[in-house]
Design the sequence.
């Protein structure tokens, strides 16, 4: 009987991690492709939290029930954040592969630091913004989504 109770207890301990609460953190890199080095490239990370529910409204076809969220932009804006400078992809001479390598080194350092702090890289998603055909301006944006068990 004691062995059975011990086995059941061990079984529950194996599943406690499955019920652990996790938290997520998003780190964003913005890398400029504006010619002549005129753009700005950064890694950005918020150091304060926001509750999305405070800025969300439920919309419907019923105009009597429909209530727009009246949140002011200043309430949503995060004023405390970490900003790490990156180099632009272009300078006066054109594309700079050294700048891309330097940005990779800085991003690697950031990712490694997050992992050392107990975060696990869960997802990476990226996009490119440009106004369209013939537009030499734009940005590469990459979001690094980390997760860890809540502490």
Sequence:
């Amino acid at each position: 009987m004691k062995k059975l109770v011990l086995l059941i207890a061990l079984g529950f301990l194996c599943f406690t991690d499955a019920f652990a609460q996790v938290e997520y953190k998003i780190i964003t890199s913005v890398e400029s492709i504006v010619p002549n080095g005129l753009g700005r490239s950064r890694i950005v990370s918020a150091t304060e939290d926001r509750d999305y529910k405070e800025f969300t409204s439920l919309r419907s076809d019923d105009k009597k029930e429909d209530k727009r969220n009246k949140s002011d932009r200043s309430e949503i804006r995060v004023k405390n954040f970490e900003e790490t400078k990156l180099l632009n992809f272009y300078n006066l001479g054109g594309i700079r592969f050294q700048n891309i390598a330097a940005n990779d080194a800085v991003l690697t350092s950031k990712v490694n630091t997050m992992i050392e702090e107990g975060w696990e890289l869960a997802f990476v998603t990226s996009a490119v913004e440009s106004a369209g055909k013939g537009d030499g301006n734009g940005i590469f944006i990459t979001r690094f989504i980390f997760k860890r068990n809540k502490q």
